[in-house]
Specification:
single chain; mainly alpha; 3 helices
Length: 85
Amino acid sequence: MIILWSIIIGGIAGAIAKLLMPGKDPGGFIITIALGIVGAILATFLGRAVGWYHEGQSAGLIGAVVGAVIILAIYRFIVGRRPLT
């Protein structure tokens, strides 16, 4: 159930990350939401490792947005540097 909640929050966080980081994304809006989901899941697991969240808790919206912005920035850096062929 926690993973499902992380996916829902991640979708919202991906949309917010897209609003916070405007510009041309190499993958479009759907990829941004998918990266938001990955960011939310990453924030959940990192938060548990650090001790911010207990077992059974997921990252909140703010943590998910921060994770999504970080993942989106890394994605833009990696994909944006590839030559288009």
